[in-house]
Amino acid sequence: MIRAEQVTDFGTLRQMAVLLERENEKLHDRLGKLTEEVSRLRGEDGGRLQQELDFLKELLARRERALFGDSSEKRSHSDTEKPTSTLPQRGHGPKEQPELPTLEKIHELDEADRVCRACGGTLQEMGQFEESEEVTVVERSFVLVKHRRTKYRCRCNGSVETALGPPKLKAGCRYAPEFAVEVVTSKYLDHIPLERQVRIMAREGLKVDSQTLWDQAETVARLLAPSARALLDRVLASELVHADESWWRLMETRAAKKWWAWSVGTEEAVCYKILDSRSQEAAREILGEYRGIVMADGYGAYGALSRAGPGFTLAHCWAHVRRKFVEIEENYPEACREILTLIGRLYEVEHEAALAGEKADVRSRRAVLRAERSRGIVSEIRAWAFAQRALPESGLGRAVAYMLGIWKGLTLFLDDTRIPLDNNLAERGLRGLVVGRKNHYGSRSKRGTEVAALFYSLIESAKLAGVDPKTYLLKAVHAAIADPKAVTLPADLLA
User: What is the CATH number of domain 217-315+427-494?
Assistant: First the structure.
């Protein structure tokens, strides 16, 4: 008998997979018939046995998806179930480039080519041009600037003065603030590891090592620490914040390798802390004594912290609920189609309210629509949940239990127009950090986690504010060099 682990040919493996799938289908049918026969002979309720059979099928399907499936939350739509709106198709033609400087280059014929092919006369300029555009690149270059500070003295030799030099990150530093900011944005905005930056710089003529680059980034982090603290204070002064967390790797052998990046943010800014646990105390370290509204998923640390004090209001995320049912839709298509349609109607209400335009108008319209339509939809969802019959350990049973377990937080939005339907803002805020984690694998030291959290906070907040992160960091660094206590937030550049 051929064993799968001994086969290396893809075509043969595919044929084996097809045969196994067919055999599984036959066994499922046979098992179903035997289950019905056993139930009939024993005089037992066949519903329970059928639920257990469905659960076994679900377990097998989960394993298949884990091996061969993707992680997308997008659903396939039938002909009768299509999205209510579609985005216009995006083309691949030339794009306008209003940000690029424009250089004009005139091309002329050589003297030898200015001869008429018909009569042999000399060609004269017509004052007209054929025009075209071309995007090119001017490579980045590193320059060694030698500063010569002129010295002055009086004829009496009673006074000697020296001209001021450029601002420096710290006394005796050989690298300019612009260079340090280039290193920081390359790593924490463009996700280029320091070792890779070293190789790129070597190709561009600069000989440097990763320790030197780290020293520049760490120095900038110390200068911008007051701004990072002020940013967190600004976020926690908001009436509603979004909270989430994602794992982070620490490559220091003496410490636990799996740390957690906690985020708390608003529509205008986001802050991160990378901590060694995912506990209630870690949640307290990022949320502090916050007393407003926290939008989060169903992770228990937030609930435990809200009960322990100081007593913030905990709202929960409908997108996480939806995700639970999307994951099991293949095994429970009818039930999941019903609940996903109901949740989709909640989002349709929110989309309609968002068309009102101004923020105050959106809240006013949202209050009306939620009272008229969302409240009824939520009642339908609750009735649907209590009507389900599934094993507690099955996918459907767990999804329903998750939803009902956080029901109070899910329904707070009905009475408070400040509360959105979901926590997607926090998940989008973590995207840059996660991409960076995939590229440079985490941090090498505890100080590295602190520096990473600081720069991700400032950079992602600049993006939310609509400010170029590199421009913001450079202005903030120069302000901090002039005054170590200076606080520069991304929104300050919009004033």
Answer: 3.30.420
